[in-house]
Amino acid sequence: MAQLDTLLPTGSEITLRKPDDWHLHLRDGAMLAAVLPETARHFGRAIVMPNLVPPVVTAAQAAAYRDRIYAIWPQGAGFTPLMTLYLTEETDPEDVAHAHAAGIATAVKLYPAGATTNSASGVRDFAKVRPVLEKMAEIGMPLCVHGEVTDHSVDIFDREAVFIDKVLKPLRKKTPDLKVVMEHVTTQDAVDYVRDSKKNLAATITTHHLIINRNHILAGGIKPHYYCLPVAKREKHRVALVQAAVSGDPRFFLGTDSAPHTDANKLLPCGCAGVFSATNTISCLAEVFEAAGKLKALEAFAALNGPKFYGLKPNDETITLTKGDPISYPTRIETGDGPVTVFDPGFPLHWHVAV
Ligand SMILES: NC(=O)N[C@@H](CC(=O)O)C(=O)O
Ligand SMILES: [Zn+2]
Ligand SMILES: [Zn+2]
């Protein structure tokens, strides 16, 4: 994928503010213990997704989950989890406001019911969550959205684009003061929609959607480890995502959507959706940005734009990337629940990360 004229010589170095991950799945229990260090090693903060079983719905549940995270990676040890609440039709606006005011939760997450992994408790009737959305707009708390319709009659490759027209546009029209993050965007349509918006809308882009298109999943044999939701689209969409990511436009920032599932659960006749990329994400991103001739824009994408949208300061710490011989990283990491395969970008990674 790299164009030779954009490649930097061995020994090149770049220092950037420590990145944040604005969309991350840490899971719980043995899986949490195994995957948390993979993120905490390189990232300052992460928006932690609430789709546990059962989901993290209330302020009390988010505080308890945060405590379980701190039990593994102690508070003050360089990584801060930013918690989210899973929006249900029963969510209490006052509990959300309390979670926000008390610094327990940073955002609320909207899963259309049935859209993705562990989303059964998500929203079916958007009228029912209107009071919560109004309260969030009032207090300036962002809504993170898994933007896919779940209607079986809609082709899986069209579900993000249809969601924008059928759900997101009306929702934002009704609540224009609500800050919305379209999570893990995968289409030119989403990039255009975000670019055309005037305010209160941003998008996260994953590492893997900058690298794979749908051929990587389906051509030459099915590759379950590249299957995630929203599913990767055509090459022209991947190119649109790269252009958005390297553009420096503050409305686009990194959310890896690193989503570990054991190999046993990925390699089933009906395998789980999710790509685990925490281990090598920064090195992957450096390759993508270097190939685009935009390595300097990595800092905005991974470390500046996200905090700006969330109204937070960038991290004080820095990381330094150095180009050298290809790095080695494990093909899979061991967890108490079984092995989890690490995202394979399909090319060698030359950027070493030092924190
Ligand atoms: N992205 C995925 O394919 N899976 C995520 C859920 C999600 O972010 O939609 C997961 O929790 O496994
Ligand atoms: Zn999602
Ligand atoms: Zn996710």
From TrEMBL:
Residues holding substrate: 25-27, 51, 146, 229, 261, 273
Which is one Gene Ontology cellular component term of this protein?
A: cytosol
InterPro entries per UniProt: Amidohydro-rel (IPR006680), DHOdimr (IPR004721), Dihydroorotase_CS (IPR002195), Metal_Hydrolase (IPR032466)
Q: Where does Zn(2+) 2 bind?
A: 109, 146, 184
Which positions carry N6-carboxylysine? Answer: 109
Pfam families, alphabetically? Amidohydro_1 (PF01979)
Q: Please give the PANTHER family that the UniProt record associates with this protein.
A: DIHYDROOROTASE
User: What's the name of the protein?
Assistant: Dihydroorotase
